[in-house]
Amino acid sequence: MRSRDYDLDFRDKARRTSAWGLGLLAVAALLWGWCALLLLTPYEVDRTSDDHYPVSCESRLLTDHGTANEGRRNGTWCAHERDWPEALAVLGLSVPVAIAGVALFAVGTVSSRMSAHAEAMRELDKYADTPAGA
Which residues on neighbouring strands pair with residue 56, listed in sequence order? Predict the structure, then answer.
């Protein structure tokens, strides 16, 4: 394999690595969005399976009342629907996905740029090696 073919193959692999990193970052962003949805949006709870008038509950994070933290003690219907561990588990799952995405994206981008730099240096060396009168 010639050096140019190897370099093009190397750049292709670097671009794929960057694409995998962007994909993992997109998955992490979706997980962050899901966590935000769980914590910031109001929701409804059915008291029974065929309930026509569900109970309206405030968001878990932005509530003025105690439904987010004191719901179990007061026995409200909102207490058991959205728990903190679920939202924190989604957020915790997103951290390693985001770290892997950043690492892959950085490695792919740096590899691609270093390959382009090496090619530019080879071209400059080629021009420096030619005689001045040629």
Answer: 44
The DSSP string of the chain is --HHHHHHHHHHHHHHHHHHHHHHHHHHHHHHHHHHHHHHS-EEE-SSTT-SSPEEE--SSS-SSSHHHHHHHHT-GGGGTS-HHHHHHHHHHHHHHHHHHHHHHHHHHHHHHHHHHHHHHHHHHHHHHS-TT-
Per-residue pLDDT 10s for the chain (134 aa) are: 577 788 888 889 999 999 999 999 999 999 999 999 888 888 777 777 777 777 777 777 776 665 555 555 555 667 666 777 888 899 999 999 999 999 999 999 999 999 888 888 888 888 877 776 55
pTM of the complete model beyond 0.85: no
Question: Could you give the 3-state DSSP secondary structure of residue 61?
Answer: coil
3-state helix, strand, coil in the chain (%, to 5): 70, 5, 25
Q: Which two tokens stand for residue 11?
A: 């750049």
Tell me if 110 sits within 8 A of 9, measured CB to CB.
no
